[in-house]
Amino acid sequence: MRMTTSDIESHVRDIYGIDVSDTTISRITDKILPIAREWQQRPLESLYAVVFMDAIHYHVRSEGQIVKKAVYIAIGIDMDGHKDVLGMWVGENESAKFWANILNSLRNRGVEDILIACTDNLTGFAAAIEAVFPQTDIQNCIIHQLRNSSKYVSYKDLKALMADLKAVYAAVDEPSALAALERFSERWDKKYPKISQSWQDNWANLSTYFKFPTELRKLIYTTNTIEGFNRQLRKVTKAKSVFPTDDSLLKMLYLAMMDITRKWTGRRQDWSLIHAQLAIYFDGRIPE
Known about the structure:
This protein is of the alpha/beta class. It has helices spanning 5-16, 25-40, 96-108, 125-132, 142-150, 155-169, 174-188, 193-201, 203-206, 214-220, 224-237, 246-261, 271-281, and strands at 47-62, 65-78, 83-91, 113-119, 137-140. Strand 1 and strand 2 form a beta hairpin. The mean pLDDT is 88. Belongs to the transposase mutator family.
């Protein structure tokens, strides 16, 4: 899916009623920037059931050099089960400090509480969340953890090793998961000592989902919600290997986001079940 001039023209006409048939893309997209900035600052809900946070990377020209920039993305699921992109921010390489700024900006836009935050395992990320939303449960994405675990595994071991890891993350409860991790460690530590060590070091935030029932687990144990969104963003932007400025990147992402989210309809089918479970686990934090 590439956004052509005519795609953008019709898109802008549909949404904003701006007639742009005779102008060039850059002229069109100059009108987009203030709209994107306004969107970035709009007020948000006071409570989100789940917020997924992840970064996607792009190359941008900066002072004559090509620099790798991180685009930070937050997607929230509100208490009615609706999904919403809370914001997209262009920053330097991914850092916990930048995430702390984003979390503060969410708070300034009206977010008072997040029940569960699903994130990658970036150093300092959990501390950044705790500093701004101290009551939030943090779930590190299992998919990110698996990717990191399999990075240096030889091809011939990969299938067996991943099956042994699956016994850990797909276990019925936390004690079974810890027993499976122990078995994994006995089998693989000689060859790949860092893998079980990483799971143990990050266990507090990897194992959060075990305390919840199946429906809720499925929702939070991976950042699939945001990974799917990022995949669609990449499709739109893949034609452009380098963006001339941060603003041009933000404009393109904003237009792509509007296009992707137009197809998001209604709430999750299992939401009433999930909501009932959230009400039990987060008693006192969900308004009647």
